[in-house]
Amino acid sequence: MFQGAAALSIDAKGRLAIPARHRGALAAAADGQMVLTAHPHRCLLLYPEPAWAPIREKVLAAPSLQQQSALIKRLLVGFAREETLDSAGRLMVAPELREFAGFDKQVWLVGQGDHFEIWSDAGWRKQQEAIFALGDQLLPPGLEDLAL
Amino acid sequence: MFQGAAALSIDAKGRLAIPARHRGALAAAADGQMVLTAHPHRCLLLYPEPAWAPIREKVLAAPSLQQQSALIKRLLVGFAREETLDSAGRLMVAPELREFAGFDKQVWLVGQGDHFEIWSDAGWRKQQEAIFALGDQLLPPGLEDLAL
DNA sequence: GAGGAAGTGGGGAAAAGTGGGGAGGGATGT
DNA sequence: ACATCCCTCCCCACTTTTCCCCACTTCCTC
């Protein structure tokens, strides 16, 4: 179970150090095999491979001659890369993915249950602003009864 | 299983270097025999020959006097070429196909499960813009329950 | 404050990407 | 039929990227 947001920096070689407290869980869930891909909201997704496989199968089953499902396939499967951590526990983020998500030096690793999202600093701030801007319209259908 | 997007360049002779991490899988799936053809979305398709054969048979079985199936046949089968990689792992892209897909120097090789798509730089960027433009209408019929 | 673990940066070897020369073979035209 | 041209493919050389390893700094723990 992954949760928690961490501000991390990507070094000049595109490497992202995963916080040590998550490494054990990643190794256990994925045997070290992870998949890094693009999210339509313009962040990246980091999945342990076993959690990613069923999603990939589902997406690939969609008809590729239909415009909209082709777009999803191209984004999710098209950008996906198998990755492992290097000996210092760092994840290599390919230049294509860095560009897609608009990564600068500073990024955020955000736990989301069975996977992580990785946001550029600017993108993450926008998410927060978007939440504040919702005001009373905060809760989406199906979650109206959420109490905190 | 092919996945991942790579920005590659086509040299002056029309050669495209396939990333080394895909070469093993291509050799295994196709014994080196590949088929390169045109996709109606104006990109190219790269199939291992064994995966292409059933698609070709299916397309060819369509009635050729019906306008719509004739168009598909002409595009998919008409543009298809058998290719192999050269000794440096490069794929030769015929001028006809380069022109069809509007290839300049920079192209994208995009894994799509059992095959690849190859996009011009401009075409690939348009795909991404199209996805962002979808907003909340992201998921096509049949994929509404996709969770990321 | 000392020791250890984690984050950070960079050097260097090896592999992969890139580009071009030139031989071989098939097509074209005289 | 022969010469020429063009296309293809193989090989070599150069550049860039990737990966592995080591060293330094910082922070937390004891």
From TrEMBL, chains A, B:
Keyword Cytoplasm: yes
Alphabetically ordered keywords of this record: Cytoplasm, DNA-binding, Repeat, Transcription, Transcription regulation
Gene Ontology biological-process annotations: negative regulation of DNA-templated transcription initiation
UniProt keyword Transcription present: yes
Alphabetized InterPro entries for the sequence: MraZ, MraZ_C, MraZ_dom, MraZ_N, MraZ_sf, SpoVT-AbrB_dom, SpoVT-AbrB_sf
Family annotation (Gene3D superfamilies): Transcriptional regulator MraZ domain (3.40.1550.20)
Family to which the UniProt record says this protein belongs: Belongs to the MraZ family.
Name of the protein described by the UniProt record: Transcriptional regulator MraZ
Organism: Rhodocyclus tenuis
Gene that produces this protein: mraZ
